[in-house]
Amino acid sequence: MRLKKFVVFAVILSVLFGIFIYSHSISAQTPTLYWGSSGRDVSNVQSKLSDWGYYNGPIDGVFGAGTADAVKRFQRNNGLGADGVVGPATWAALGFNVRGPATYQPSRGVSARDDVTLLARVIMGEAGDEPYLGKVAVGATILNRVASGKFPTTLAGVIYEPNAFESITNGIANQTPSQESLKAALDAINGWDPTQGALFFWNPAKPVSSWIWSRPIITQIGAHVFAK
Amino acid sequence: MKRWWIIPALVGVLAIAGLAYWGYGLSRDKQQYVTYLNNRNQGAFYNLIGHVENVEAMISKGVVANSPGQRMMIFADIWQQAYAAQQNLSQIPMTGPSVTRTSSFLTQTGDYAWSLAKKYSRGLTVKPEELKKLNELHTQAGYLAVELQKIERSAADGRLSWGEIKGAADRDLSKKVPPVPMGLQKIDKNMEAFPTLIYDGPFSDHITRQSPKGLTGNQINKDRAADIARSFVEAGTTNKYKTTKTENVNGTIPAFRIHLVPQNAKTPVVIVDVTKKGGHVLSMLNTRAVAKPKMPAGKAASIGSRFLAGQKINNMEPTYVIEQRNTGVVIFEYIQDGVIIYPDLMKVKIALDNGEVVGFEGTGFVMNHQTRKLSKPKISEQQALKAVNPQLKIKSKKLAVIPLENLQEILVYEVKGDLNGDNFIVYINANTGKEEKILKVVNTNGGPVTM
Predict the structure, then answer these.
(1) Residues B186-221: pLDDT tens digits?
(2) How far does the CA of residue A45 sit from the closest CA of chain B (Å)?
(3) From B269's CA, which of B96, B219, B357, B423 has a CA 20 to 30 Å away?
(4) Which residue is closest to A111 within chain B, CA to CA?
(5) What is the CATH number of domain B381-450?
(6) CA distances from B328 to A124, A140, B230, B314, B446 (A)
(7) pLDDT tens column, A98-109
(8) Nearest Cβ partner of A149 from B164, B203, B422?
(9) Interface pTM (ipTM) of the complex?
């Protein structure tokens, strides 16, 4: 019985918590809302207005006549133009942070982490048992492909080109990369290229297409041959 | 008791039925995956044809267009179409040799069109040789479009198969119907016969074919190379080293690859590449794991400077330090008459646990270094600063030589500035006052990178 009570309590708690999060979340931008708008932003406005006694309709995220009236009443009481449209001034009066598009905000969308991890995964898959130099070399070869124009011009494009890398085709590259692979990926990205511009590498002990042997070979590192 | 077998029989029938149902589900799933993949491949192929046809049509329009505005729009469109074609080509699974020639044709066409669009945006007029190149590209794009249409027709008639997926390909092989990618590879072979494109862009062939400018001196033998390698490594550490192996690297810069280990030990291996001509050290990499830092990353710059000076590599100035995985990678740039020469760069990697030099990269220096004739800038610093956006809070400014995408070098004023916490570097041409390039400095967990 006690267990059952506990479960019920937990469920209620999590639902309440969910509602709490839901009602406090707001999109990064505060869009202008008017009659006909819908969505979470409208719900946020409705619940605020209802908390403050301006609105007694359902909090359904639909900006209808009731919401518009409530907004107008709120605007009149707060010295705003009573147009029934929730713009930046009304958002601010409602107590939300307004993110205006007017000023320049510092960017935050760039990280080099994704490239390093992606490259390290292929290095791990293709050269997991190779000496460290062989790992850097595989990373450099992939980066050389990106810069060559003979292959896709993005890292993900090169790596996920169909049948380009065995470890991608068979899924081995999807495991978490080792520390050594990550280190090798960074060295390759920082410009260390033990292959001097190789575009292809293969293991001569395994069966490969005869075409690939026609490429000018630059060097061999561990079990891999590197070629232009 | 007569029908004792009825229950086992029922169980057996049920088991077989269950198995059959399960197997049917599996095969239906597999069929769905195969169809899904085939559809995606066919989609990519049809997109490829469409974009190549557009490239051909747009190039011919580019030849006809006569106003700078129209031309700019057309060339920007070619760039976009060629890029899309290349993307779709790279999604078609190849079984044998890849289609690198077709791919580089598309990349270069797009890149060339973009370089023209940029030119025309500066109000330049079309030159006869550009027109000639465009005519050539038009012919090649036309060839490619026609060949692709042939493949499409053969595939539609069943003379080529869409069996790119492994299972399907095996089945089709027995029927002797060659798959579509094979057709693409045949086109690629024929495209090899076309002349390649030399132009002002990062994917132009002259960039991969450039020869090292800083490779001075006489040929050395491998014993001499081993000596150079050993003294180079020992200069950055307190250990003594011995050579274990010497190999050849036959790349753009022929080199000896020397493997070294500490005396009386088997690890860590240090690998040094020494050029056969002149005995320049191209790169060094110590493979040891580096422990937790015991010094600030800033210390790496002074250690690196002392190391380079000890190697008689002079006039190198540390420009910034990337701190990652317990090491500090210091970027050094060559300084000539107070001007910072960006193409001539070296990287020195310092282990922050004991201050040892664990890496060196000097390929860029050997490729580009030469004594340059630096002319006096035609415009003053004051004039240059006027070209910079007034919103940018300027933090520093100096003269520099930077490489453009086509590796041509230009003298510029380098202006570093700040816009609400974002850092930018703006390069103003010191002879024309034109804004040549804008870089944005982004701080990542791997140190600052420019984009």
Answers:
(1) 888 887 777 777 776 677 776 667 788 888 888 999
(2) 31
(3) B219
(4) B444
(5) 3.10.450.40
(6) 24, 20, 22, 21, 10
(7) 655 566 666 665
(8) B203
(9) 0.82
Q: Residue B13: pLDDT band by 50, 70, 90 thresholds?
A: very high
**pLDDT at residue A208 tops 80:** no
Chain B residue at shortest CA distance from A169: B93
> Are A39 and A135 part of one and the same domain?
no
Distance CA B322, CA B348 (A): 10
Which chain B residues are within 8 Å of A103, Cβ to Cβ?
A: 420
Of residues B203 and B390, the one with the higher pLDDT is B390
Q: Out of B90, B95, B329, whose CB is closest to A161?
A: B90
pTM passes above 0.90: no
Q: Give B97's contacts in chain A (Cβ within 8 Å).
A: 209, 211-212
Q: Where are the alpha helices (DSSP H) in B401-451?
A: none
Residue A1 lies in a domain: no
Residue A184: predicted pLDDT: 92
Residue showing tokens 């249409």: B149
**Chain A residue numbers touching B252 (CB-CB < 8 A):** 196-197
State the nearest Cα–Cα gap between A217 and chain B, in angstroms: 7
- Cα(B208)–Cα(B307) distance, rounded to whole angstroms? 31
- Contact: B419, A104; criterion CB under 8 Å: yes
Count how many pairs of residues, chain A against chain B, have C-beta atoms within 8 Å: 135
Q: Which domain holds residue A59?
A: 26-99
Task: Flag if B96 and A136 touch (Cβ within 8 Å).
Answer: no
Using CB atoms, pick whichever of B101, B252, B444 lies closest to residue A112. B444
On whether both A176 and A87 belong to a single domain, the answer is no
pLDDT at B361: 92
* Out of A16-20, A47-51, A135-139, least confident range: A16-20
Residue written as tokens 């009825």?
A: B6
Distance CA B217, CA B408 (A): 25
Closest by CA to B134, choosing from B53, B48, B75, is B75
Closest residue in chain A to residue B93, using alpha carbons only: A162
Task: Identify which of A152, A182, A219 has the shortest CB distance to residue B257.
Answer: A219
A3 assigned to some structural domain? no
**Model pLDDT for residues B229-266, shown as the tens digit of each residue:** 999 998 888 888 999 989 999 888 999 999 999 988 88
For B228-237, B290-299, B401-410, which range has the lowest pLDDT when averaged over its residues? B401-410
Q: Could you tell me the CATH number of the domain that includes residue A46?
A: 1.10.101.10
| Model confidence at B170: pLDDT above 90 | no
Torsion angle of the four alpha carbons B171, B173, B174, B177, in this order, in degrees rounded to the nearest 10: 110
Report the alpha-carbon distance of residue B171 to residue B165 in Å, rounded.
10
Q: Are B94 and B184 in contact (CB under 8 A)?
A: yes
pLDDT tier for residue A113 given thresholds of 50, 70 and 90: low
Q: Do A187 and B98 touch (CB under 8 A)?
A: no
Give the other-Cβ count within 10 Å of A37's Cβ. Answer: 18
pLDDT at residue B172, rounded to an integer = 45
Residues A91 and A142 in one domain: no
Contacts of B91 in chain A (CB under 8 A): 161-162
* pLDDT at residue number B166: 45
